[in-house]
What we know:
Layout: H1 2-11, H2 24-31, E1 41-45, H3 51-59, E2 65-70, H4 73-82, E3 89-93, H5 99-105, E4 111-116, H6 125-138, E5 139-149, H7 155-159, E6 164-170, E7 177-183
Parallel strand pairs: 1-2, 1-4, 2-3, 4-5
Antiparallel strand pairs: 5-7, 6-7
Amino acid sequence: MNLAFMYQYFHQPRTVGALLPSSTHLAKKMVKGIDFEHAGCIVEYGPGTGVFTRELIRRRSACTTLLLIEYNRHFYEKVKEQVRDEKNVYVIHGSAENVQKYLIQYDIPKVDYVLSGLPFASLTSEVSDCILQNTRSVLAEEGKFITFQYTSFKKQLIRSFFPQIKVEKEWRNVPPAYIFTCEKNQI
């Protein structure tokens, strides 16, 4: 799996943010703030090889809908195969910029959590702004946007859409990653 991931990184560096897939340590830290008992819908941007997806599926309640949006065709096919027997899991080959359209397509009125593995440092400012604005608009009032980045460089950009951010670091990932848990409303 790592060789396939590296291949995708070298051939599509703007859409694959790292040389290696995320660690299970990072996946566990990314989902630890999710109230799985009450989450009606969780959206994942850029599931890649499915590290976070597997953790979401393992912990979610049976009635939680998962909407996975993957831009990279290779990763889309892999994740679709991984979740083919799961109920209430939808995999879309598309862009997170279009999250609103996909929610309408699946008749999902609100999102409780958005997890993101998108490399904001590699995306244009227009694409980043569009994704963050649309994410903010689809989240329920108490919803959370949880993303990781390899630097804190994009924290100010994210804060312009989500004023409340809690930051943690996961050292057991290669490379180490910052986890931003973001909320729409200020304290």
